[in-house]
Amino acid sequence: MNKVLVIVVACGFIACVPKRKFDDLQTKYQMEKEQRAETNKKLGEVETNLNELLKKRTEEEKRMSALVRDTSVQGMSLRQLTRNYDQLDKTYRELLDIQEKVKKGSQAEAQRLLLEVEQSRLDLQNKEEELNKIQLSLKDKENRLANLKKELEAREQKVKELQSIVNKQDSASKALRNKLHAALLGFQDKGLSVTMRNGKVYVSLENELMFQSGSWEVGTQGRQALKQLADVLKDNPDINIMVEGHTDIDKFLGRGDIKDNWDLSVKRATEIVKILELNKVNPKAISAAGRGEHIPLDPADTKEAKKKNRRTEIILTPKLDVLMDLLEK
Fold first, then answer.
1. How far apart are alpha carbons 81 and 149 in whole angstroms?
2. Which helix (DSSP H) or strand (DSSP E) does residue 197 occupy?
3. In the beta sheet, which residues pair with residue 192?
4. pTM
5. Residue 40: closest CA among 295, 245, 315, 276
């Protein structure tokens, strides 16, 4: 009698679902798919920008090291030219003294000495000009080195800020994973698992825990697991929640407006979203998506593989608003 009543109610429910409502679900599914793609794109941009900053910091460090070596060589040249200048100045003064002493001597000798004095003066003038050029070059390199240090320090600070935000978000994800482990411990031997990959927390729910074959109505145990999951999620508002439905490769023959595995996976995802919303999870943070049979955990065509692939995954991702604001600045 009970089986007959369930079949009658189910048939009545399917008949009452208008096509407009199904189209609305399809539209919402497409919008959520685009939002998820945009979120993945932003995350990729964040990782690319972080890698570029690290690469630029390495290049600036190499440039600064080369400039330090060049500055050291210029300094050595400056000291050597200073010593040469002092020696020429001494020689010049000695020649001036000689010039005074030989004024009364031979005219030819005086002329020779005058030429030597003039040559020494010209040499000294050339050395002074060369010394001035080196001093200007050294000053310019010192200024460039100071500017490069400032730029490098600013970039290092930005990298530290970005890394700090990433670390905090990673720590938050780990803390969330631990809370979910504790809250859902009683279901982890009944087809529920909690894992962390690439900074995201994945709550995987096997179909045996959630749905009967070919159905999208969540069973009693599944509703209890979702309630305990919702108790954790509503206390963590700074995360995005993506609910993904997955099927195996067996073809779904259709029931009412649900025609194939795509429709079935979307319908199961939206049913779970509704239960989370009923349990006070912020609906603005939730997205639903159907993946059909196209992202299997095990591609083999076996009974065990199909059981793994029939699942619903709830993917929890930290919000990237703070990180994106810092990159834009």
1. 29
2. strand 192-197
3. 205
4. 0.49
5. 315
